[in-house]
Design goal:
Elements lengths: L4 E6 L13 H13 L3 H7 L4 E4 L12 E5 L5 H12 L6 E4 L4 H15 L8 H25 L6 H16 L3 H22 L9 E3 L7 H9 L3 E4 L2 H10 L1 H12 L3 E4 L12
Parallel strand pairs: 1-2, 1-3, 3-4, 5-6, 6-7
Helix pairs in contact: 1-4, 1-5, 2-6, 5-7, 6-7, 8-10
């Protein structure tokens, strides 16, 4: 199989009206599928960006014969009918990953299918994979913003796609420097599009999120290695930190006294991170 395309089945026409109504695990599955589709090995193999596949009407026969299709959980009636039409067609069917919530699960399932159908696909180191997941998220946000405010995309999709593909090819070659050079150009294009449509100064706040999984030695090491940290500490986690992790509690207190950290907090129960 020569992988030609990667898509995410969605009840929308494209990235501009990407669904925002999902909650909890459904939202997690949607984001997992979209960001997993930006794995650089897949982009380098197809030579193009992943797409949103509208789940409206039967797909053209054979259009996805050499494709990888990622299907989020909680499919609509339209998406279920779309999948039935694909599976019932006479033409070869795409590789389909469906019903999974976490990105690691989606990637593992896709990798298993591709290992048998397209074993020649190469993949980048995990740290470079993560760069593309972030880029895919940023691209989606900018496209949704610019379409809402300007009525359409305001940057050159061909140029952007070429830079993303070049970055992906360098990533699978293990060339981190060239990869980051091309990714920087990609982000420059996204920033120009955002500034053209929404010309307000943006200030970024780098926050260190503390959760139950990062208490203890992990938090102590992070505070020791950082010069300045804005520590986001929900009330319930702060209570657990004080009661069960004295070393991390003391390290945080010292960092605050030394001016290397400040603490941000909110509701006692924190925030819902199910879709993160």
């Amino acid at each position: 199989m020569n992988l030609r395309s990667v898509g995410v089945l969605s009840p929308s026409e494209g990235v501009a009206d990407f669904p925002t109504f999902a909650r909890g695990s459904e939202a997690g599955s949607l984001w997992a599928c979209w960001t997993a589709a930006w794995r650089p090995g897949l982009i380098a193999a197809t030579g193009g960006l992943p797409t949103v596949v509208p789940a409206y009407g039967p797909p053209p026969a054979g259009e996805w014969a050499d494709g990888l299709l990622l299907v989020p959980t909680a499919p609509t009636d339209e998406s279920a009918e779309w999948l039935d039409a694909v599976r019932g067609a006479q033409a070869p069917t795409p590789l389909i990953v469906e019903g999974l919530v976490g990105r690691d699960q989606v990637i593992a399932a896709a990798q298993q299918l591709l290992a048998a159908a397209a074993p020649g696909i190469r993949h980048a180191p995990a740290e470079l994979d993560a760069e593309f997941y972030a880029l895919g998220y940023a691209y989606l946000q900018v496209e949704m913003l610019t379409h809402d405010l300007a009525g359409g995309s305001v940057f050159d999709p061909t140029l952007f796609s070429c830079d993303v593909v070049e970055a992906a090819r360098h990533a699978v070659d293990g060339d981190a420097r060239a990869t980051h050079d091309h990714l920087r150009w990609c982000y420059d294009q996204l920033e120009q599009a955002r500034s053209h449509t929404y010309p307000l100064e943006l200030l970024m706040l780098d926050a260190l999120l503390v959760a139950e999984t990062t208490l203890g030695d992990s938090l102590v090491r992070t505070l020791a290695e950082t010069r300045a940290a804005n520590v986001l500490l929900p009330g319930d986690i702060a209570t657990r930190l004080a009661d069960a992790c004295p070393a991390a509690r003391d390290a945080l207190q010292t960092a605050v006294q030394d001016g290397r950290a400040c603490v941000m907090t909110g509701a006692y129960g924190g925030i819902d991170l199910a879709a993160a």
